[in-house]
Amino acid sequence: MKFNINTPEGTRDRLFAECQERRQVQARLTRLFRQRGFLEVSTPDTEFYDLFARSGSAISQEQMIKVGDPSGKFCVMRPDSTTPIARVAATKLKAVALPQRLYYDQTVYRANPAHNGSSREIPQCGVELIGAKGKKADLEIIATAIDALRCCGAPKFHVELGHAGFFRELAGRLELADDGAEEMRALIEGKNFAALVDFLTPYQGHPACAALAQLSRLFGGVEVLAQAERLAGQTPAVDYLSSLYDELSAAGYGQYIRFDLGMVHQIDYYTGVVFRGYVEGAGDAVLSGGRYDNLVGVFGREAQATGFAVDVDAVARTLPQLVPPVLRTVVHYEPGYLAQALEAVDSCPAGTCELSPCRTLESSLNLARDKGVERVLVFDKDGERTVTV
Amino acid sequence: MSERLKIAITKGRLLDQSVELFEAAGLDCTPIRNPGRRLVHCLPNYPLDAVLAKAPDVITYVEHGVCDLGIVGKDTILEKGGSFYEVLDLGFGKCRFALAVKEGSDFYGTYKTRRVASKYPEVTRSFFEKKGMDVDIIKIEGSVELAPILNLADAIVDIVETGATLKANGLVPIEEVAPVSARLIVNTASMKLYKDEIADLIARCEGELEKRT
Lengths: 389, 213
Hints:
The complex is a heterodimer.
Chain A: H1 17-35, E1 39-40, E2 46-48, H2 49-55, E3 66-67, E4 75-77, H3 82-90, E5 100-109, E6 121-130, H4 135-152, E7 157-163, H5 164-174, H6 178-189, H7 193-200, H8 209-214, E8 219-220, H9 223-232, H10 236-250, E9 257-260, E10 273-279, E11 287-291, H11 295-298, E12 305-311, H12 312-318, E13 329-333, H13 338-346, E14 353-355, H14 361-371, E15 375-380, E16 383-388
Parallel strand pairs in A: 1-5, 7-9, 13-14, 13-15
Antiparallel strand pairs in A: 2-4, 3-4, 5-6, 6-12, 7-10, 8-9, 10-11, 11-12, 15-16
Helix pairs in contact in A: 1-4, 1-12, 4-10
Chain B: E1 5-10, H1 13-24, H2 30-33, E2 40-42, E3 48-53, H3 55-63, E4 69-73, H4 74-80, E5 85-89, E6 95-102, E7 114-118, H5 121-131, E8 135-139, H6 146-149, E9 155-160, H7 164-168, E10 171-180, E11 182-186, H8 188-193, H9 195-212
Parallel strand pairs in B: 1-3, 1-4, 7-8, 7-9
Antiparallel strand pairs in B: 2-3, 4-11, 5-11, 6-9, 6-10
């Protein structure tokens, strides 16, 4: 029988600096989350498929990795963390007063097409603010999203705000059938400028038409909001975004904020403000979030909620590469001198000094030579001395 | 404008027409016309660097963000899919996907499971899925017209321009599957990070395309 010893497509081993780079981002993010009062929760790697099917999230069945369950029920590897956390908030934490601030640092699993270089295992750090509606909750989460990218050390980044209500209102004015609205939504999401204009040709002259035709172009700085108002008239969604911007600017976050009113992904899942974070050097958004007021209720406790998740590896790849420490010293010790030897290792910077497992000094010197280390520290009955190789 | 954008252009016929469009829009494309041994062509009067690639690779480069923009046929987009912004229909490279059968055969007039050969199995699958029909799809790499002639398949889904090749082989197109033309695509993050630069290039192309119609 031929055994397979390589890793499956979309998974891989990570060595040394890559682990450190990931850990560094996780450590910075989770420190920020704890500082802001969020408590860590961890949910199972596998859950019943039903959970995600009920949540109305946009992750398709094809993207979920299925696993067997001894009960015969259909399970998947967790494709996102918000749904399980909404479940926890509605069940295990039912008796706890709202709002609850929860954070997670765990991997989500997605089945991707073969050979496209993406990973099946995506470590994410994120927060959920459950049981809080309104502006203050949105402000807190957006500011925390900006601080999250900032504390990771991202050189050039911004967070882009949109609002699920803007598209809904315009589409509603046009009175489209469901599949028509979905076709239009896909054109707007894909920034398919020309095809969108073609789609809207039959509705020309309709008051919502001009704004919809421009919707995929309505992204950029704060001037976008004024543009939107010129096109669509006053709308609660744009007024709200504008008031968020004022407060965030006053708090010093203005320079990091952009808008994209054509951000119309998962329109049935998000209920209010939505946002994404972009970092220079990453080919796609590295942070995404928004307000999802209906999800927790699905699991039995009505609670408005908002939150976001950061793709840890995507952020880590944009940061300067870490250089693993170089081994400088090998410690050789005679029986009875373990304590002194360990003390010597512990007093050096991490990774620069290690014990030799060899019995004789000669083998330890050979080991040092093999590893390219010039200095061997010896502990024996004569005390401590250094041998240069 | 500070950032130089990178664009991947599909080699072959689309390349010639892309260069024509860019030149009409005021971009000096001499380095693309005289490539020599270079692989990256830096335009002298516009902050744009071009690389030439096979169609599916254009999508790959844009999706991963190593190129900010790409020019690729809708045929490849439909077959390969992916996540990017498809901002403009460039109007050239026009043709269509069609379902073609042997002259005189009645493709829909039977309950038997039909076999369809194509270089584009995804396009074929989604076309028949929308119709709610089960068909057996066979992927062919070369001349798809051979499949019905050799009785491997009842029909083919392929790109048709004039229909001359089909006719010469005794095949007739019976239904349009989708129209095809060249598209300008943009990486989702680049669109946000280099908005002004990309908007300028799009506006130049749009302006030129409007003149043409």
